[in-house]
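Folded chain entry —
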Amino acid sequence: MIQWLRDLVFLVVPKWRFMNTYSQAGEDVMAAYFFFKHHIQHPTYLDIGTNDPISGNNTFLFYKRGSKGVCIEADPTLIPALKKARPKDHIITAGVTFDNRSEADFYVFELASHNTLSKEEADFRVSKGGQKLKEVIRIPLVNINTLIETHFPKGIDFLSLDVEGIDLMILESLNFEKHRPALICVESITFSMDNQETRISEIASFMKAKGYRVYADSPINTLFADNRFYSQST
């Protein structure tokens, strides 16, 4: 089907036009359109920093539509809800390392979406007020390349990354020569308690150097698409 006709179908067919979004700012629908355009019906996904299994989640839409993937969540108190809501996904209780460590301190806030592996990020958030650090726990770490090699032997379609302060470091640890997700969604703004967030330019620069381009920006995240999809006839 020619490109303009496929785009028209996406816009007018009710099941696409009125698709629910579960992400913070519609990122899952943006991603769904990308996969629709490139004929990927059931994208596989690696969701790092899953947090809530449904609300504010970038991969639940795909799970609901028949996809399967791996969810990584470091906070053990969130795991029961994940397993209940997404029994077909592989749920791993761990953080993702960007170095050679096998375990690390995990900074747990009263609001779980602020949890982080970064002491510097935790200290910064406490200093800005509004969020209280509840506890520091010791958690196991897994390597992102090992995760992909173990669970996605045929490759990975969608990487969702939300790890509060260490997103770029994890991206830098990914072996792009071996593992090239078709689409990557990463939190790309700085933390702010007074609506003064700024886009982290280093993330876009790094992804461009790895052969990815900005596919879409939301107020919170940026979706990067592998350039190989733009060199293909569609």
Q: What stands out?
A: The chain has a mean pLDDT of 89. The first strand starts at residue 45 and ends at 48. The first helix runs from residue 3 to 12.
